[in-house]
Amino acid sequence: MRATTIHSPYDIRVEHVPDASVRQPGDAVVQVLRACVCGTDLWAYRGESARQPGQRLGHEFLGTVTDIGPEVTSLRPGDLVIAPLSWSDGSCVYCTEDLPSACPNGGIWGAVGSDGGQGEAVRVPYADSTLVQLPADAASDDRLLNALLTLADVLGTGYHAALSAGARPGASVAVVGDGAVGLCAVMAARMLGAENIVILGRHPARLELAQKFGATAAVTERGDAAVEAVRELTGGHGVHASIEAAGTAEARNTAIAATRPGGAVGWVGAPHGSPLDTAMLFIRSITLRGGIAPVRAHIPTLLPRILDGTIDPSPVFDGTVALDAIADAYQAMNTRTSLKVLITP
Amino acid sequence: MRATTIHSPYDIRVEHVPDASVRQPGDAVVQVLRACVCGTDLWAYRGESARQPGQRLGHEFLGTVTDIGPEVTSLRPGDLVIAPLSWSDGSCVYCTEDLPSACPNGGIWGAVGSDGGQGEAVRVPYADSTLVQLPADAASDDRLLNALLTLADVLGTGYHAALSAGARPGASVAVVGDGAVGLCAVMAARMLGAENIVILGRHPARLELAQKFGATAAVTERGDAAVEAVRELTGGHGVHASIEAAGTAEARNTAIAATRPGGAVGWVGAPHGSPLDTAMLFIRSITLRGGIAPVRAHIPTLLPRILDGTIDPSPVFDGTVALDAIADAYQAMNTRTSLKVLITP
């Protein structure tokens, strides 16, 4: 089969690799219908996160089950399924506490020795607990498939950020970052009942999408000026809930500074760069909550909202390329020409 | 009147200063019956926190109201009262949200221009909202007075740390630091229903007191070895709730590393030294919550527990000196000869 690999920074290839196959009794094989490129994939692309030469890429995909191991009980070949960004055993203490991201038997697609989502097929460990079945008729609905694909990462991660920050009715919310996670966080904050949602970003098309998703104000300044603007929008206080959805030191400290005393910062951007402003956290009694999103745990909440039309995150995708041209997708996202690119094998 | 001042590191004096008096209509004057020295006072003592020459010291005191301004309605001269570590207006949005530590009209005793608790009397702004009345008959009960004095800071701060960390029935708790705040955090964690409480410290008398307050295990190692020991005590996982009650970088990172995925660190030690281990926080989805304790907000919860005998924090005091000898108290605490020293004017 064909799959995306990385050999060195900016050297993305589509290569022939061994076919995905059942190796453990709980495995399933999923033929990928749709995958996409994540902002965190760009860290590998740019060499900011180390990868071994030839390592697979991609942790977002949905597709059709083509084979199952003898212990798989809830899925059958032909089922349409979504995979969250990591597999998990479903039975450990962390999985039962809705923190599958801490599963000791878990892992993220594309880790050494595993298949990546940006390929023709994926071997899925612990298929019963990892995969979530989708309605069969979704397969013929392009918009719906796109929306469902966001359950793999960006929607679940944005939702986790909004939950972690304490977005709720009556709370003011700031979202730092206008990438796909930030936009999904806006949507999630709205879904959680927040009425005043400020997006911090600079890209006009993304800010427009943020507004469509529920943002009530946009702040295009950066750094101290952005913090000042958020405070002005909130009677001088800052927001109850800040969402850091960029993963940079500047975004983190902007999120902290834009939060009012007693508020919380939800962070889902992996730590990059210089340290947190801990003095500000301490003096203002601001809670820091989040981390790698337990996306699998949020699918049962989010899937019904997509299916019933309450939310439609599909517009986060603004481009599609075939698997063989995936290097173009990386380039377009790296230059911020595209927000998030779909891959069709 | 006499009051404690600091002129440079290690230069603690008791000097004649202008008498505390009513200056604003909401002020009260409190004649100090008991004060004490806090671990954070030692930062000023050692020159780690800047002070202006002649600045007052002490933020923990209880005493008797001797004068009130015309707008004070809930107190009368003769009332026995406890003051929390900071004054607050009781009417701002933060005070009404139980976060008086963020009151824009608030301040900490000993700040430039205010009286300190380590003196004969203190002018108390916003007396109605700042002070809490105590039963008159407590004045004749030495043990009870000592216990009540802990409401000024260490008990409320330890309780805030335990709450922030999520101490609760079924949760395992680690307390990093065997100072008075750490010991009070042990007591608070127990009060909140935690059954497994590990104290991390090295001082035998303090560990004994921790056990008396509810600790079920003690870890005397430091750094990685301490983390390993906590994990061994918790089935390899780490604790649900870690309390950082020392204010050092090492204590903070030990608290983080000793916490299990999805757990929380309650921090009440002001940030000192090198940065937080944010990667560990992120990867393990650990919440960081706390900050300057809103001690005033916790008095209504804690005072009745002291009065009905549910808790008795009075043993955190292991020495008493007269105001004129307060330099000895600083020295004894700085050398860890004393845990916490009472001051009687």
UniProtKB/TrEMBL annotation, chains A, B:
The keyword Lipoprotein does not apply. Residues 180-306 form the Alcohol dehydrogenase-like C-terminal domain. Residues 24-135 form the Alcohol dehydrogenase-like N-terminal domain. It comes from the Bacteria. InterPro entries: ADH-like_C, ADH-like_N, GroES-like_sf, NAD(P)-bd_dom_sf. Keywords: Metal-binding, Zinc. Its cofactor is Zn(2+). This is Alcohol dehydrogenase catalytic domain-containing protein. It comes from Streptodolium elevatio.
